[in-house]
Design a protein that fits this description.
Largest sheet of chain A: 7 strands, mixed
Radius of gyration of chain A: 13 Å
Strand content of chain B: over 45%
Oligomer: heterodimer
Structural class of chain B: mainly beta
Helix content of chain A: under 10%
Order of helices and strands of chain B: EEEEEEEEEEE
Distance between the termini of chain A: 36 Å
Chain lengths: ~120, ~110
C-alpha cells in the first residue's frame, strides 16, 4: 500500500518552545492531508484539514495560531505547535488521501510529543 | 452528524478462535468504510477499504462486510493469532470521500497463546 512518513517519530521539548512535525506522502501526491490528535486510550480526533496551496481548515476548538499548518507541496504538510505547553503533549498522526485509489486514506506512523 | 460506535470495547480470546468485531454508524450515506489496526504507541495500518457499492472485502484471514442500509460493518478474523493483538478501528468519511474520517473508539483485541 501507499506510504506516509512522519518526522520526528518522537520529540521532547520544553514549555514555551515550538515544534515542527512533517508529514510526507512518499509514493503518491496528496492534495489533501489531515492532522489528528490522539490522547491515551482514546480514538483519533481531527484537528485540521490541510489543502495544498491554500489555508488549512481547523476544527472547532483547535487554535489556528497555535497549531500552524503549511501544505506547500503535493507531498508535504507540516504542523507546527507554537509555544507548546504540557497539555499539548499527545500523539499526533497525519493522513494523506490517495484520490487515485478510491479515496483511501493512509496514515503516518505518528509523532509522540512530550512537553516538559 | 456522523457517529461511529464499536463493540465490544475489548475482547480476549484464545489463539485459533474465529472472532467478529462490530461497527455501526449513524448516517448510512457513506462513501466508503475503512478498518484499521493500531498497535500500542504506533500509527494506523489500513486493513480493508470497502466502497459503498460493495458488500464485503477480504484480505488473508480478514473479511469485512458492509450493510449500508442498517448502518453496520463487521470485521471477521479467522484463526486468530497472538500477533493479531491490537486495537481495531472502524472509520467512515465525515461527509464525502474527500473528507476526514470519523473514528469509532476501537476494539482492543487480545489473543492469548
Amino acid at each position: 500500500g501507499a506510504v506516509v512518513s512522519q518526522h520526528p517519530s518522537w520529540v521532547i521539548c520544553k514549555s514555551g518552545t515550538s515544534v515542527k512535525i512533517e508529514c510526507r506522502s512518499l509514493d503518491f501526491q496528496a492534495t489533501t492531508m489531515f492532522w489528528y490528535r490522539q490522547f491515551p486510550k482514546q480514538s483519533l480526533m481531527l484537528m485540521a484539514t490541510s489543502n495544498e496551496g491554500s489555508k488549512a481548515t481547523y476544527e472547532q476548538g483547535v487554535e489556528k495560531d497555535k497549531f500552524l499548518i503549511n501544505h506547500a507541496s503535493l507531498t508535504l504538510s507540516t504542523l507546527t505547535v507554537t509555544s507548546a505547553h504540557p497539555e499539548d503533549s499527545s500523539f499526533y498522526i497525519c493522513s494523506a488521501m490517495d484520490t487515485g485509489r478510491g479515496y483511501e486514506q493512509y496514515f503516518g506512523p505518528g509523532t509522540r510529543l512530550t512537553v516538559t | 452528524k456522523q457517529e461511529v460506535t464499536q463493540i465490544p470495547a475489548a475482547l480476549s480470546v484464545p489463539e485459533g478462535e474465529n472472532l467478529v468485531l462490530n461497527c455501526s454508524f449513524t448516517d448510512s450515506a457513506i462513501y466508503n468504510l475503512q478498518w484499521f489496526r493500531q498497535d500500542p504507541g504506533k500509527g494506523l495500518t489500513s486493513l480493508l477499504l470497502i466502497q459503498s457499492s460493495q458488500r464485503e472485502q477480504t484480505s488473508g484471514r480478514l473479511n469485512a462486510s458492509l450493510d449500508k442500509s442498517s448502518g453496520r460493518s463487521t470485521l471477521y478474523i479467522a484463526a486468530s493469532q497472538p500477533g493479531d493483538s491490537a486495537t481495531y478501528l472502524c472509520a467512515v468519511p465525515l461527509i464525502s470521500g474527500n473528507t476526514p474520517l470519523v473514528f469509532g473508539k476501537g476494539t482492543r483485541l487480545s489473543v492469548i497463546a
